[in-house]
Amino acid sequence: MNFISTRSASPAANLSQAIAAGLAPDGGLYVPQQMPASRTLQAGDSLASTANELLQPFFAGDALEAELSGICQQAFDFPAPLLPMATPNDHVLELFHGPTAAFKDFGARFLAASLSRLRAGQGQPLTIVVATSGDTGAAVAAAFHNQPNLKVVVLYPDGRVSPRQAHQLGCLGGNIRALRVAGSFDDCQAMAKQALNDRDLQAQVPLSSANSISLGRLLPQMSYYAHAALSHQAAHGTVLNFVIPTGNLGNAMAAVMARALGVPLGRIVLATNANRVLPDYFNGGDYAPKPSVATLANAMDVGAPSNFERLRWLYDGDDAALRDAFVSRAVDDATIRETIARRYRLHGEVFCPHTATAVQVLEQLRASGDAAADQHWAVAATAHPAKFESVVEPLIGREVPVPSALAELLKRPAHAEPCAPEYAALRRTLLEA
Ligand SMILES: *Cc1c(COP(=O)(O)O)cnc(C)c1O
Residues where N6-(pyridoxal phosphate)lysine occurs (predicted)? Predict the structure, then answer.
């Protein structure tokens, strides 16, 4: 299969090229030249085997085709259980059982497994440059740690990520370098972008990115929706509808694509925090990106959802059809707090602030009858509540035990190098051996 840019000006690329490049040369996002036809799928015995079957058409004819099964085994080596919630016919798809306890582990591990195979036998290692406000960098660093022929340089704004997030970035060592930048996230992102556009530098140090628009992260995210929905249908004979907490639309876009491939998913509803660019659009307004505002669900603090371009492509740019197909609702911080406290008080359930936006939106759909009582719905639980303990613990009045994989990371000593908020400082670091 070949891949083209959402902006169509770039030449078609094969899968390996699209994964290695990240962004298309014209600044657009890679999408399949043609979506594979919808087909009847079956849940495999494991998440890895479902992923292997689902992703096959995208790998057909590519250098990575023979590697797909191995990549899936390596990336999907932890579960994504679909569990009942206390309220009838409601479920939660737990996507936080990976090394950094957030759904981004799936995409980051799949990308690392793909890139390490593409780089095999090439002399110089590839250096991944990531700017992070917390979660992405941690998932990427953990996924690439000890991968042969790959290095990672993570830039984060010093003092502006949580202590646990900073620890996760700095505790790996080896092929992972953490730079704590004396500046903002925007400074970090600008520095990373400049490096990726610096031809002179790239001639000496091959560089790539690992941000959420990469196909190598997007495609594998279809797998957990497929495995959950197919298993659920086999057990209950019914489709599963989803509410997905949304920032850059990467996770939700994967669900939409999985449905187009024949996965028995019903409605897909988008929950956002107070950054309401998507709800405003789906309620009939123009698509109007704005600067993001800070919220309790900070991994969704996005004012210009990067995958929106892909969603529009899938609907042929037809805004009316898009608005017909999706519901999106925003949840403010006070309501996030209220939802976390109440679900714990009434049901003993503990949700992270991101997941709580989706739980709240599902409650609203149930209350209005928009989600009928006999329909089966699930929320995507994107992070473990222990990652956001400073928000969650005061609301529920007890400690949230840290999952063992994350606890392992937190036990390691951490070290980050200071870095001035200037491109020259990053460039020097990248040129050091
Ligand atoms: C990144 C992230 C999100 C948002 O996912 P998108 O793919 O950007 O929509 C939601 N929750 C958590 C915990 C995240 O880390």
Answer: 104
**In the chain, where the domains are located:** 73-100+216-403
> Looking at ligand 1, which residue's alpha carbon is closest to its atom 15?
299
Distance in Å, CA 245 to ligand 1 centroid? 7
Instruction: Using a pLDDT cut of 70, give the percent of the chain over it.
Output: 100
- Give the CATH number of domain 73-100+216-403; options: 1.10.260.40, 3.40.50.1360, 3.50.50.60, 3.40.50.1100: 3.40.50.1100
3-state SS track over the chain: CEEEECCCCCCCEEHHHHHHHCCCCCCCCEEECCCCCCCCCCCCCCHHHHHHHHHHHHHCCCCCHHHHHHHHHHHCCCCCCEEECCCCCEEEEECCCCCCCECHHHHHHHHHHHHHHHHCCCCCCEEEEEECCCHHHHHHHHHHCCCCCEEEEEEEECCCCCHHHHHHHHCCCCCEEEEEECCCHHHHHHHHHHHHCCHHHHHHCCEECCCCCCHHHHHHHHHHHHHHHHHHHHHHCCCEEEEEECCCCHHHHHHHHHHHCCCCEEEEEEEECCCCHHHHHHCCCCCCCCCCCCCCCHHHCCCCCCCHHHHHHHCCCCHHHHHHHCEEEECCHHHHHHHHHHHHHHHCCCCCHHHHHHHHHHHHHHHHCCCCCCCEEEEEECECHHHHHHHHHHHHCCCCCCCHHHHHHHHCCCCCEEECCCHHHHHHHHHCC
Q: Ligand 1, residue 96: give the atom nearest the CA.
A: 13
pLDDT, one tens digit per residue, over 141-186 is 999 999 989 999 999 999 888 888 899 999 999 999 999 999 988 8
